[in-house]
Request: fold
Amino acid sequence: MQEENLYKEVDIRAKKISDLKAMGINPYADKYDVTHTLLEARSLPMDSKVRVAGRITFRRAFGKFMFIQLSDIYAKIQVSLSVNEIPEDKYKFFKDFVDIADFVGIEGEMYATQTGEITVRALDYKLLSKAMLPLPEKFHGLTDIETRYRQRYLDLITNEDTRKVFLGRSKVVSTIRRYLEDNGFMEIESPILQTAVSGASAKPFFTHHNALDLDCNLRIAFETWLKQAVAGGITKVFELGKDFRNEGMDATHLQEFTQVEWYAGYWNYEQNIVFFKNLVQKLLMDTLGTLKITYQGQEIDFGGEWQRVNYVEEMKKILGFDFLDIEELDEFKQKVIDRGLFTKTDLEECKSVRTLIDYIYKRKIREGMVGPTILYNYPAVLKTLARRNDNDKRVTDVFQVVVCGAEICNAYSELVDPVIQRETLMQQLIEKANGDEETMDLDEDFLKSMEHGMPPMSGLGFGIDRFIMLIYDLPNIRDTVLFPIMK
Reply:
């Protein structure tokens, strides 16, 4: 029955459009000169003259008087139409031909109703765009997930929480850019189409460049390019954009995701810890006005000192042995199985010591971290591009911030020794040959830039989507993306 009513409504609207055109009226105007946005109009003094425009999301008629509501992502405003201000034939035209979901322009003056509602008293109007389809029946809260993702415009029209998320996301991105630029960082753009898988341990998307007859991969990280920019004299550099990783899909991972990476010459990772913490606190205050949030029932306080956890020491406690010197995968697996931590079946997908360590960490350490935790001192085998610690070459000067079991940033003092870098990349090639798909290629162009000399530096990658998911308490990372990919 609901579907039948929809077809009837569509037919009625189609006839109205046809009738308007037959009357010589174009139901799709070329423009409308507004004097104020809906948000601006709401703060004007009473009796102010305005020309505003928006989509009709509510309408109620009382004979020769009518209230409508105009909406956009920023605000809503009530409009009153009456035969006392508008000629009766024009009022009847509005009543007969203008519907919810249409766009209209209103010329009028501001006033407050007896209940105190800020309202525009319409003195004239113009139909700007006729909608062929109505809004969803329950348009005050579209709940169907499939529709919300596929038709995000309806979600924005109908859901206040969705509008809040995407306004907040825009503010977060803008604030990050401003924060970095105000601290002397320069934004650049690196290529999305690449000829070497580099910058992270991840499985890439592949494509083919027809004009050059060249196999390419989509960028998995900005890292190697931004480091080359630092070598070229851009001492502080950043990029904010899309990366692509052809990996599993779940509530916290996207194959196409947004992140910012920055690199600062002459910094170490301790300076980046302070810089990142200040940025996160600024983002929370500017966006939410508080350093305390609730995520999936957990209260998280980003103020005060953040807990610090030594990755290597925590792993030793869990494993009961010093794992840093074990190079044989089968030996490592057997020790883990003997400890009763995992079964042989659990560990089948681990094709290298690196992936085995990461598997254990994610299930035995990361999952239990709730408040903002600085996890540092990572095994060198995990971080191909990170600087080895001066006191123990088996570990790297790395940190990540983990909140509610999710990593929101990855940062380290960068490896700038070309000899060690070549050795680590050669090791990745061996792991790739043994079946590990999440490895880097031997990127000779990047190595050459390192051989020409790079200053000491520290870099950081910060996932925007996951951060938005966290601060707005969203159950799925696709809720943070305006137009997520759908099957």
